[in-house]
Amino acid sequence: MSKRIIQNGSSLGPYSQAVIVGNHCYVAGTGGFLPGTSQLVEGGKEAEIRQTMKNLEAVIGEAGYSMSDIVSVTAYLRDVSDWPTFNEIYSTCFEPESAPARAVVGVAELPAGANLEVTCVAVREDTA
User: Fold this and answer.
1) Domain parsing of the chain, residue ranges
2) In this structure, what are the phi and psi dihedrals at residue 27, rounded to the nearest 5 degrees?
3) What is the dihedral sign for C-alpha 45, 89, 17, 34?
4) CATH class for domain 3-123?
5) Residues of the chain with pLDDT under 70
6) Which listed residue, of 7, 33, 112, 115, carries a Cα 20 to 30 Å from 14's Cα?
7) How many other CB atoms are there within 10 angstroms of residue 81's CB atom?
8) Closest alpha carbon to 46 in 111, 94, 92
9) What is the tens place of the pLDDT at every residue in 37-65?
10) Contact at 8 Å (CB) between 68 and 77?
11) Alpha-carbon distance values, 105 to 26, 66, 93 (Å)
12) How far is CA 119 from CA 9, 30, 43, 74, in A?
């Protein structure tokens, strides 16, 4: 089975932003960086969380998927006490009756001093 690579210029290393295989889209860790840069958005943790979710939506969209196609999300928080703020913002990104499965993991560090990184898997009935 062939794979299609999505690159949007926002990765911090030698990896693809997303890889599509069949009808599955695997999105790499996405953070609150200004699009196309390795610079975190200014404005604190809430702004970083909002930018992270915008960036996730942009990568998914570029791959030809939508947020409603996401079936699984893993979020890595540098400070688990940010979970309520993350949850509040995250909940605006998905319809409650079809929200994806999710795990939130506390970590000691993230690249570039980020406070949050999110990865996901999306699936569609048809292929992209």
Assistant:
1) 3-123
2) -100, 130
3) negative
4) alpha beta
5) 9-12, 127-128
6) 115
7) 9
8) 92
9) 889 999 999 999 999 999 999 999 999 99
10) no
11) 19, 24, 19
12) 17, 6, 22, 5
| CA angle (36, 14, 83) in 5-degree steps | 65
8 Å CB contact between 98 and 69: no
Three-state DSSP at 115 gives coil
Q: How far apart are CA 62 and CA 40, in angstroms?
A: 21
User: What is the pLDDT, as a whole number, of residue 9?
Assistant: 63
Torsion of CA 60, 20, 7, 28, to 10 degrees: 70
Number of DSSP helices (H) and strands (E) in the chain, helices first: 2, 6
**Residue labelled with tokens 């688990």:** 80
Token pair for residue 63? 């791959």
3-6 and 70-77 beta bridge pairing? unpaired
* DSSP 8-state code for residue 58: H
Beta bridge partners of 33: 40
